[in-house]
Amino acid sequence: MAISWHQDPHVVKNSTIAVYVSTPEQEPPSAGYKVVFRRLDDESGAPVVIEPGSGSAYLMLGAFNATHQHGVLAGEGERVSCVFRTIELKENSLDWLLETCATANALSLDSEAAIAAHQDTFTRLEMEWIRQFWGKGAAHAALHRGWWQETIAHLETIWEMFEQQTNDLIKHCTSAESTTSLVKTVLKALRRRQDLRARWEAFYTSPAVEALPESQRPIVRPSLVTQPSLEMLIAILCQFS
After folding, report:
1. SS3 label, residue 49
2. Per-residue pLDDT tens for 35-64?
3. pTM strictly above 0.70
4. How far, CA to CA in Å, does 127 sit from each of 28, 70, 168?
5. CA-CA distance, 114 to 239, in Å (whole number)?
6. Are 84 and 19 in contact (CB under 8 A)?
């Protein structure tokens, strides 16, 4: 599949999603690309398949995105799609992220809820912002010089702060002042981040990515290679849980 099964994230509940498709100068007009749909409660059933030609559009009306998944079967040549959706900005804007990072920065070792929120912010910063930006490759980054690259560089600086705070948190978890409950809270956060990083690593080495031109392959930022590794940190904490 060119795009695996998914639901569009962060859309306003029951809002319609519109997709315009173009396969310029391709024969047949659809270039062989197909869009597939399936119900969430019937993933083993036969999907609905459409083959929108160049210049056509399709709509996912109302609650469709909440009850179905969709994907794209690969064809030949170039395919361009423009997606129009109403996004819920509350937890998906840069202003929200920076405000949340500033709040999480005031880490309290006395509050498990605060630590869980701190680690959740750390994970979202990495997975939903930094990796998403660099995951589109050098050509995409070159088109976003200036403000965007400066913003991502600032987010990477915040990421490094979170990484250091997490290492300090691990030390606290292994001290006499820690509790089993606190260790389990941190372990849960680390395992979630470990799982998401593994998914990204699988994406980086997938056949679909390896087939892309060099300029479109994901950039793995050195700053995201952590020392010590999450595997090591998890192994350490397991001794105290």
Report:
1. strand
2. 999 998 887 888 999 999 889 999 999 999
3. yes
4. 37, 22, 21
5. 23
6. yes
